[in-house]
Design a protein that fits this description.
The structure is a homodimer.
Chain A (H helix, E strand, L loop, with lengths): L14 E5 L3 E2 L5 E2 L2 E8 L9 E5 L25 E2 L4 E2 L4 E5 L14 E2 L4 E2 L9 H15 L6 E5 L1 H12 L6 E5 L7 H15 L17 H15 L2 H8 L19 H16 L2 H13 L10 H5 L5 E7 L7 H13 L4 E6 L14 H16 L3
Helix pairs in contact in A: 1-2, 3-4, 3-7, 4-6
Amino acid sequence: MTKPSEDSIGLVAPQTLHFKEPFTLACGKTLSEHQIAFETYGTLNENRSNAVLICHALSGHHHAAGFHEGDSKPGWWDAYIGPGKAIDTHKFYVVCTNNIGGCHGSTGPTDTNPETQSVWGSDFPPLRVRDWVHSQARVADALGIDQWAAVVGGSLGGMQAMRWALEYPDRLRHCVVIASAMKLTAQNIAFNQTARQAITSDPEFKAGEYLKHNTLPASGLSVARMIGHITYLSDDGMGQKFGRELRSGDFNQGTDELVEFQIESYLRYQGAKFSQAFDANTYILMTRALDYFDLAREYDNDPVKAFEQAQCDFAVIAFDSDWRFAPERSKEIASALLHADKNVFYAEIASPYGHDAFLVPNQPRYEALFASYMNKVASSCD
Amino acid sequence: MTKPSEDSIGLVAPQTLHFKEPFTLACGKTLSEHQIAFETYGTLNENRSNAVLICHALSGHHHAAGFHEGDSKPGWWDAYIGPGKAIDTHKFYVVCTNNIGGCHGSTGPTDTNPETQSVWGSDFPPLRVRDWVHSQARVADALGIDQWAAVVGGSLGGMQAMRWALEYPDRLRHCVVIASAMKLTAQNIAFNQTARQAITSDPEFKAGEYLKHNTLPASGLSVARMIGHITYLSDDGMGQKFGRELRSGDFNQGTDELVEFQIESYLRYQGAKFSQAFDANTYILMTRALDYFDLAREYDNDPVKAFEQAQCDFAVIAFDSDWRFAPERSKEIASALLHADKNVFYAEIASPYGHDAFLVPNQPRYEALFASYMNKVASSCD
């Protein structure tokens, strides 16, 4: 287990902001009030110019770096946020929020609907990426941040970063989009739909009202996670890590069907763990937002026209083994940005880790390129 | 709907062979008796040299071509079996069996175990690809076929064809291996395991004894099929066919969560249809056999040494958009065959249809190459 060390932020504690003003969502429905869980690392400088917003991905949350009291594992992006790391907390004031609809402290389907005084469950309104961006803007207001030095995100987080550049062009100087896409492919949507189908067809799901029935669609959520997990890894990477190794026993005995491949027990373990820690309705809401995200839709489906709204500079990073958000998708982003006359830094990094690469520690080239771009961001904070 | 035409075999009827002699499986267990459902097309010539065995894939069966009485859709490989087609029934006597463990007429988990007089269910013994090969050899004996002109199969069927070449080297002259592999990758195993997990975690599965409980794990089997279906198609092909088109309604209304992408309703429909037509225990048995198949394992993991057993010629065909059984896997087969001094015809065909390409009609280059090789096979029948 990783322990706090000199390059770690060390202990951190989550905070919460309560918003009493109504918040209208893209779907037209309004949250009469809501709360946002968030964490911050580093110090806001005097002219409030060094704030960096981290947008989390599908199953992420606001605990991006450092350690919570008693935890032996750090936040999900601790490898890239901390003193001397790519997002250097000596230089930046880093903010990470849990998205609305989440299950880690921000208002979401496991909370009580103040209008009905019962758990939201499946009644929680559908969400779009822009809803998260608008709520993050409120957090920025509350923290006195007029302009982010950078908005940074991987995967679904990268979609939020791009949406920031279009919705609030003057509120960010840099947009860092890692392993992301302007919209999902049909295959991506198909995987998400199959995952949702696994959840909703679990009898314990109870049409999304499992909390009221004191049940948990753990089997369905576990299968959903297993589907996702396979698509986050690369075929080669999985082969290198697990090969066709049997977990135990001898295949040649033949009859012992309990014998299984290591990849099987690994996936089942990960799925079961996730199903106890994550809310099924949140999973459905977040994958729906992913599916519907289409950056250029309201700009006549023209990504160049969309990015012409932006005023910031961009970094776009892809990983060669990522088949869920393939480098081709990142190249489309970079190309549209160039045609929209924006400054773009584009890098495709060799990595065996597939889509997960954006999270995986100890990738020197990724670290170096990421840190180099963030140094440029830091120089814009003076 | 396709209707019988001059290039169709026309009406066909399945047949059944009953075997009363005990049949010992690779796992060591013995079926005291069993039956095999099969179909034949064309005529066995005088010297019994023109017989071609078709091996089916995961969800296939013995009804490979022609029409059953009252059906509007032909057998699963009708595009490639018939008068004047790649496997020309003017020239060949074509045999296709339903694999043991199947759910279309051959002895399988939905049948009664003669020892216990109750339904086999999950007690049906685990199967290996070689079990099917050995049972097909018995069918050959029963039909008086000493030597196949060719054994032909796609995907799991290709694995059977390769195993034939090693187990019965003098009983086939040609081995046609389409969209197959010498063993699955970890990613393939992971998809299969996730599919099985979807089935076995369905409460209606009842530890495999659903027939005794008069239930059906339709939800789980449906999700399993959806997972499989995605992996049989290519990302691009799926995009071309479905794009991001919404099935109905207007996204901008936002709140209507019933609006969905076409790919979603398509997959759900296909999954639901499959779950009513296919047996869950068969699905588990067949995917397990796929996972465990490892052509060279007992030959010191040396594919060259394995193929040195073979005496026949080989055709190996792959499709460029097939990511489940990528061309790389077929190249490994072709390369090992070359090093084992076998005659190999290898072709990689451009196709948008992914793994499904081996089944999809109207692919002129595939048809031409397939027919050309089968012409060579035909010339060996004189």
